[in-house]
């Protein structure tokens, strides 16, 4: 027998260092006894911490406390008993050296372990030898350490392999949560969680599933989050692209082509010109190209891990610069409203485009103008005075252009701007008018002379 190692006093001073919340556990004793309550502080204990089982609503005429590490009264599991009159403590078979009973019935458990989880029963014996009992439950949880993520395949191949991520270690009574890119896991047909959420399975991995992934572990007393984990998803190569996009080059230029294909690991490249292998390189350079460098340029991309291959073909055309054209006219001096003029753009180049200019401005076609199918001939029918001016043609290919010297077209027209037909019409009109006036004068003279006439 011995006295408690911690002196009895009212209040909670001995356990003020416990920064934990309390909860109230209420238990019913047999119908013939009074009711009292036990409050566990804290309700969920962390391994290695101290726990108090506080007793409230004690009956009067107390005689003795008896604490048991069991759901009922079992002498083989008695922790200790405490006599009120002489404040003596008697240790029982279940005493571990970490328990203390206070005069108010409270039981202190120091440095609790996971094995302390379970039911605890307090039996009170009054001075009149009546018995009161209450049973409570103590829950002890481990302090969770920082978790980590393991994978059954840290380098899955896109659209082929699944990947299983596991949050380590496995701990009882622990909640597991997953995050992707620091966001909570969203539902997806490609994602599966184990029943306890500890394992995350990606059924069909894509390149967008690299992560990073994090797992959280939680229990009522602690929480932890893993370091980010990234999947190295193998994919590609995708269909390569060749840059720049230009397909036409000027004779004598430097040809530089670059090939790129999305791939992990990075793709290996091979160039072929007109089907003949050239260089194992991502970039191809040919200085001072000639017409003979025209042809098909193929980029072949290969992923040595996935074993996949992709190709892209680009047709390159090398052209000489176009020569200077000239303009020929069917007639450079024409008469307004009467003549038609045909202008022809002369060039020795082939595969070209032709444009026409009038007085250094792009020619705006009127209803009197017609172009041949290849734009090399311009017909104006009939010409008018506003068609007079300088005409030029420009020939171009995809890499160069050249403009002719101006050809001057002169348009002749009658004074006042009237044509011969128009002048003849006016003369006839005037003569007809004079004849009408003469007739009127004659009629007036007859009337004045009494019908004998002026002569």
> Rg, please?
54 Å
Q: What is the typical, i.e. mean, pLDDT?
A: 86
Q: Which descriptor suits the 3D outline? A: elongated
Strand content: 35-45%
Largest sheet: 6 strands, mixed
Number of helices: 1
Order of strands across the main sheet: 3-11-10-5-6-7
Q: Which structural class do the helices and strands define?
A: mainly beta
**Helical proportion, percent range:** under 10%
Poorly predicted runs of 5 or more residues? 1-34
**How many DSSP-defined strands?**
37
| Terminal residue distance | 181 Å
Topology:
Layout: E1 23-26, E2 37-41, E3 44-46, E4 51-56, E5 62-68, E6 78-83, E7 88-91, E8 99-101, E9 107-109, E10 118-126, E11 131-141, E12 148-151, E13 163-168, E14 175-180, E15 183-184, E16 191-193, E17 199-202, E18 213-219, E19 222-225, E20 241-243, E21 248-250, E22 255-260, E23 268-273, E24 276-277, E25 283-286, E26 295-302, E27 309-319, E28 326-329, E29 333-335, E30 341-346, E31 353-358, E32 361-362, E33 369-371, E34 377-380, E35 389-397, E36 400-403, E37 407-412, H1 420-449
Parallel strand pairs: 3-11, 21-27, 29-37
Antiparallel strand pairs: 1-2, 2-4, 4-9, 5-6, 5-10, 6-7, 8-9, 10-11, 12-13, 13-17, 14-15, 14-18, 16-17, 18-19, 20-22, 22-25, 23-24, 23-26, 26-27, 28-30, 30-34, 31-32, 31-35, 33-34, 35-36, 35-37
């Amino acid at each position: 027998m011995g006295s408690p190692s911690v002196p009895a006093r009212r209040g909670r001073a001995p356990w003020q260092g416990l920064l934990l919340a309390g909860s109230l556990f209420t238990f019913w004793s047999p119908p013939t006894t009074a009711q009292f309550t036990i409050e566990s502080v804290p309700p969920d204990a962390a391994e290695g911490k101290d726990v108090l089982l506080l007793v409230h609503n004690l009956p009067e005429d107390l005689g003795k406390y008896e604490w048991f590490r069991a759901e009922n009264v079992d002498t083989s599991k008695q922790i200790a008993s405490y006599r009120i009159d002489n404040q003596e403590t008697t240790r029982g078979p279940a005493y571990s050296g970490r328990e203390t009973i206070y005069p108010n019935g409270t039981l202190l458990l120091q440095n609790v372990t996971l094995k302390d989880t379970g039911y605890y029963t307090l039996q009170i014996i009054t001075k009149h030898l009546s018995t009161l009992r209450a049973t409570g439950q103590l829950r002890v949880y481990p302090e969770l350490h920082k978790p980590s993520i393991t994978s059954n395949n840290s380098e899955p191949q896109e659209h082929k392999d699944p990947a299983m991520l596991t949050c380590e270690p496995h701990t009882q009574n622990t909640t597991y949560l997953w995050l992707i890119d620091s966001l909570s896991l969203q539902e997806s047909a490609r994602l599966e969680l184990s029943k306890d959420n500890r394992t995350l399975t990606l059924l069909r991995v894509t390149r967008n599933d690299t992560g990073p992934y994090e797992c959280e572990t939680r229990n009522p007393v602690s929480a932890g989050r893993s370091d980010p984990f990234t999947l190295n998803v193998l994919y590609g190569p995708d269909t390569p692209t060749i840059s720049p996009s230009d397909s036409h080059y000027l004779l004598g230029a430097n040809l530089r082509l670059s090939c790129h294909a999305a791939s992990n690991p990075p793709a290996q490249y091979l160039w072929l010109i007109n089907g003949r292998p050239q260089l194992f390189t991502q970039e191809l350079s040919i200085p001072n190209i000639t017409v003979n460098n025209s042809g098909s340029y193929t980029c072949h991309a290969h992923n040595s891990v996935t074993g996949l291959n992709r190709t892209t073909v680009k047709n390159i055309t090398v052209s000489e610069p176009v020569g200077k054209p000239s303009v020929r006219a069917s007639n450079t001096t024409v008469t307004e409203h009467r003549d038609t003029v045909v202008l022809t753009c002369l060039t020795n180049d082939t595969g070209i485009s032709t444009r026409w200019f009038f007085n250094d401005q792009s020619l705006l076609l009127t209803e009197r103008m017609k172009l041949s199918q290849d734009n090399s001939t311009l017909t104006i029918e009939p010409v008018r005075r506003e068609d007079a001016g300088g005409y030029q043609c420009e020939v171009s290919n995809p890499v160069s252009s050249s403009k002719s010297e101006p050809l001057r077209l002169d348009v002749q027209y009658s004074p006042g701007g009237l044509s011969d037909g128009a002048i003849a019409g006016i003369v006839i009109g005037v003569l007809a008018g004079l004849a009408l006036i003469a007739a009127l004068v004659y009629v007036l003279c007859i009337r004045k002379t009494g019908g004998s006439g002026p002569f």
